Design the sequence.
């Protein structure tokens, strides 16, 4: 008999008014999206997580606990960050659960993790996808330097750690992936799902903001491409680990196209897309999605572009700070990652 502790997976809770909406629109499309930084095994060291029970950090235990969590969440779309062992483990095991996947590995040669979107072909058909590599930001710096006849590019090769050099500062090897899906039942509708993991260091807040701006510019271009090619108005969902807390520069920028910009965002720098956080507009942002001794706060979000035909109808509940399953910090026997999964169920009505 196994003595392994079952992972703690909370339920989806209806958003106020959702029941009424579902009754009034019985033919709407419903789908569930979950975002989860699953903690790459390459970053799991007992020295990083001395508070965690050693057994729960081992790959064999963690990998199958993560799978168990994903299975219980029953999402139609999973946006996962810090995915390593994609080909050797996740792809085939997720296939056995009825999912197909797309994946982008981080840019650097030493970086083994990346972002994956898993989706149910029974729910959605993959139409097209694009990679997002934030190292592409270096191209604009190089072009600017060349235009000025600046020799800084050559100098940066001499000292690859000089953070005052924008070519060094911006090269963080972070990535994202975006894809267009066609949902066919009970009617045709295009959905764009984007997944990303922004840089972590609070000392490089300007880099995170530059990544966020590049992300939304690419997403806006992709939405226009899909709209024009398929003559439709796609729904737009953006999820991931943004390494940014509610109200900071990155968060404020991402929602600035929908809400009144905060003082930290210049008016001319408003986001090119209207995006709002599904938790913020329903229950308020969680108290935390990342839980370690050195840092406990919210870093993970699901944003969507509001419209007359897409509404959140339920959201995944999260624990309170005093909940027994998170006391002592993460990872632990109940949670295989230092992050918690977040999720929402959406309903799309006919346009």
Sequence:
């Amino acid at each position: 008999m196994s003595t392994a502790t079952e992972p703690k997976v909370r339920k989806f809770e209806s958003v106020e008014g959702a029941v009424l909406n579902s009754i009034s629109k019985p033919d709407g499309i419903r789908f569930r999206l979950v975002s989860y930084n699953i903690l790459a095994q390459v970053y799991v060291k007992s020295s990083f997580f001395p508070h965690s029970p050693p057994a729960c950090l081992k790959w064999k235990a963690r990998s199958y606990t993560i799978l168990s969590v994903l299975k219980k969440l029953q999402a139609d779309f999973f946006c996962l960050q810090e995915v390593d062992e994609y080909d050797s483990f996740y792809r085939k095991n997720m296939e056995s659960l009825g999912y197909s996947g797309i994946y982008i590995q981080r840019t650097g040669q030493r970086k083994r993790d990346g972002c994956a979107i898993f989706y149910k072909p029974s729910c959605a058909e993959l139409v097209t996808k694009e990679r997002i590599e934030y190292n592409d930001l270096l191209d604009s710096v190089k072009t600017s330097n060349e235009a000025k006849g600046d020799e800084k590019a050559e100098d940066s090769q001499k000292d690859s750690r000089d953070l005052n050099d924008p070519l060094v500062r911006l090269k963080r090897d972070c990535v994202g992936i975006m894809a267009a899906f066609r949902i066919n039942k009970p009617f045709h509708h295009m959905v764009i799902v984007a997944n990303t993991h922004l840089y972590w260091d609070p000392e490089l807040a300007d880099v995170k903001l530059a990544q966020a701006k590049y992300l939304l510019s690419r997403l806006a271009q992709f939405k226009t491409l899909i709209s024009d090619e398929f003559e439709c108005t796609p729904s737009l969902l953006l999820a991931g680990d943004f390494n940014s807390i509610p109200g900071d520069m990155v968060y404020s920028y991402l929602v600035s196209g929908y809400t009144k910009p905060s003082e930290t965002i210049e008016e001319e720098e408003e986001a090119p897309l209207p995006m709002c956080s599904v938790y913020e507009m329903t229950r308020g942002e969680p108290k935390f999605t990342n839980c370690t001794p050195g840092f406990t706060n919210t870093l993970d979000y699901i944003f969507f572009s509001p419209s007359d035909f897409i509404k959140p109808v339920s959201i995944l509940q999260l624990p309170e700070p005093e909940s027994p399953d998170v006391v002592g910090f993460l990872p632990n026997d109940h949670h295989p990652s230092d992050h918690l999964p977040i999720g929402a169920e959406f309903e799309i009505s006919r346009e």
